[in-house]
Design brief:
- Belongs to the bacterial ribosomal protein bL20 family.
- One of its GO terms (cellular component) is ribosome.
- This is Large ribosomal subunit protein bL20.
- Keywords: Ribonucleoprotein, Ribosomal protein, RNA-binding, rRNA-binding.
- The chain starts with 6 loop residues before the first helix and ends with a helix.
- The protein is mainly α.
- The longest helix has about 40 residues.
- The chain has one domain: c-terminal domain of poly(a) binding protein.
C-alpha cells in the first residue's frame, strides 16, 4: 500500500508560508525551504517588537517632557516629583502631547510645580 502524504494539506501549508514571504528578497520569497526560515525569523521579531514598542514610546514621551521642562527652567525628575506632591495625576503620554500641542498649558503645570516646591521650602 502506498504511503499517504495528504498532498492538499501539505500544499496549503507551503502556500501559506510563501504568501507571508511576499516581498522578501531573492529565494526567501519563492522557495519554501528559505521562506520558512525567513518568515519564522520575521514573526519572532514582530512578536518581540510589539512589546518593545511600548517601552520605546514611553522613552520618547520622557524625552519630550524633559525637553519642554528644561525650556521652562526645571528638569524632568523635579517636575515629575512636583506633580506627584501636587496631586496632579497625568500620564506621560498626555504630558508629552500637552508639551507639544499646548505649551501654555504645560507652562502652567510647570509653574504649579515650581510654586508648590518653593512653598514647601519656605514653610
Amino acid at each position: 500500500m502506498p504511503r499517504a502524504t495528504n498532498k492538499p494539506a501539505s500544499r496549503a501549508r507551503r502556500k501559506k508560508v510563501i504568501k507571508k514571504a511576499q516581498g522578501y528578497f531573492g529565494n526567501k520569497s519563492r522557495l519554501f525551504r528559505y521562506a520558512k526560515d525567513a518568515v519564522d525569523r520575521g514573526e519572532k521579531f514582530a512578536y518581540r517588537d510589539r512589546r518593545k514598542k511600548k517601552s520605546e514610546m514611553r522613552q520618547l514621551w520622557i524625552v519630550r517632557i524633559n525637553a519642554a521642562c528644561r525650556a521652562n527652567g526645571i528638569n524632568y525628575s523635579r517636575f515629575m516629583s512636583g506633580l506627584r506632591t501636587a496631586g496632579i495625576e497625568m500620564n506621560r503620554k498626555v504630558l508629552s502631547e500637552l508639551a507639544i500641542n499646548d505649551p501654555a498649558a504645560f507652562q502652567g503645570l510647570v509653574d504649579q510645580v515650581k510654586f508648590g516646591s518653593s512653598a514647601e521650602k519656605a514653610g
